[in-house]
Design goal:
Number of domains: 3
Order of helices and strands: EEHEEEEEHHEEEEEHEEHEEHEEEHEE
CATH topology of the largest domain: Uridine Diphospho-n-acetylenolpyruvylglucosamine Reductase, domain 3
Largest sheet: 5 strands, antiparallel
Number of helices: 7
Radius of gyration: 21 Å
Strand order of the largest sheet: 6-7-12-10-11
Shape: globular
Strand content: 25-35%
Distance between the termini: 40 Å
Mean pLDDT: 93
Length: 352
């Protein structure tokens, strides 16, 4: 089925939101768990590299991929009503924003702050997506993972997922030869709006509803982050730095940096502010540049290559390190010829 003569280079341009014009040896869409198992087993037995993608919204292909790209379209949503809550089971190929819209339309509230976050459910768990005061970990009960090596399922409860800022156990331990199949989500029937500080100027606290929060966030995100169908991008390329209170206080004394205290005593500061105040706003490498409305977003204006985007990212990284002594960490995954490449091999990142 996958002998060499059946391989032909297939374009990935429409399957990655950066719209990088690279190819894979073969692209296969899967709609069932069994199909995923069968394809992965064939690749393993034939020693063909493979990766699993959803919407391709958080990656940068650095070159043509020398294997099979499996596109996860395993879908389905199960909803159970309890006395005080709603329990959802969502398969990993569902689009996140579609889930947010569906639950709101059903009167199930609590996901509205994560409106318009790109990608599928599986990526939401891997990345621990977050926006406007809400993270995936806040509503997650468990994650179901399939070992593609021995076809065994593992249900990992939230406390063992090691969720942190844009990170989880699924980026390391359950990365290679594993696939997220579905997630369990719990939403309380007692709705409490989350009004993050950056929303306060946009929302009237009177007669506040989940729909108003949803619509406001959609409006803000459409202004700040370009639609990848029109302008290639992967959302925030870098994470907002999370630094010690002592270091934050030193910087705040020198600069008026937007900062957000964290529950663990650390301080999150605005990575976009750092970029803007390094005189990088108008820099452009080929067709790769920085989005004017959101400095953490790097964009492909038309036909940028991965190397142009990477060169731009490295200039940003070096500039921030030199001026503020802060090492920006990439939020996206880098994919080379044979699979994912650790960011530490691309950037000089301390304690990544």
């Amino acid at each position: 089925m996958y002998k060499k003569k059946y391989f032909s280079n297939q374009s990935l341009k429409d399957l990655n939101t950066f719209r990088i014009d690279v190819t894979a040896k073969k692209i296969i869409f899967v709609k069932t768990i069994q199909s995923l198992i069968n394809i992965s087993k064939t690749c393993q037995s034939s020693k063909i590299p493979y990766i699993i993608l959803g919407e391709g919204s958080n990656i940068l292909f650095l070159e043509n991929y020398a294997g099979v790209v499996i596109i996860n379209r395993i879908k389905g949503i199960k909803i159970i009503e309890k006395k005080d809550s709603w329990l959802l089971y969502v398969f990993s190929g569902e689009r996140w924003h579609d889930l947010v819209k569906l639950t709101l339309n059903l009167g199930i509230l609590g996901l509205e702050n994560l409106a318009l976050v790109p990608g599928c459910i599986g990526s939401a768990a891997i990345q621990n997506i977050g926006a406007y005061g809400l993270e995936f970990k806040d509503i997650c009960q468990y994650v179901d993972v399939l070992s593609l090596k021995n076809n065994t399922y593992t249900r990992i409860k939230k406390k063992f997922c090691k969720f942190s800022y844009r990170n989880s156990i699924f980026k390391k331990k359950y990365n290679h030869e594993h696939a997220i199949i579905g997630v369990g989500i719990k939403l309380s029937k007692l709705w409490h709006p989350i009004i993050f500080s950056s929303l306060e100027n946009y929302i009237n606290p009177k007669n506040l509803t989940a729909y108003k929060i949803f619509n406001t966030i959609c409006t803000i995100r459409k202004k700040k982050i370009p639609n990848p169908k029109n302008i290639g991008n992967a959302g925030s390329f870098f994470k907002n730095p999370v630094i010690t209170k002592k270091k934050a206080q030193q910087l705040i004394r020198l600069y008026k940096i937007p900062n957000y205290p964290q529950k663990n005593g650390l301080i999150k500061i605005s990575g976009g502010w750092l970029i803007e105040h390094c005189s990088l706003k108008n820099i452009q490498i080929g067709d790769a540049t920085i989005h004017k409305q959101q400095m953490l977003v790097l964009i492909n204006k038309k036909s940028a290559t991965a190397q142009e985007i990477l060169k731009l990212a490295k200039i940003i990284h070096r500039s921030i390190l030199k001026k503020f002594n802060i090492s920006l960490k990439p939020e996206i995954d880098f994919i080379g010829q044979l699979g994912k490449i650790e960011p530490s091999k691309i950037f000089k990142i301390k304690n990544y």
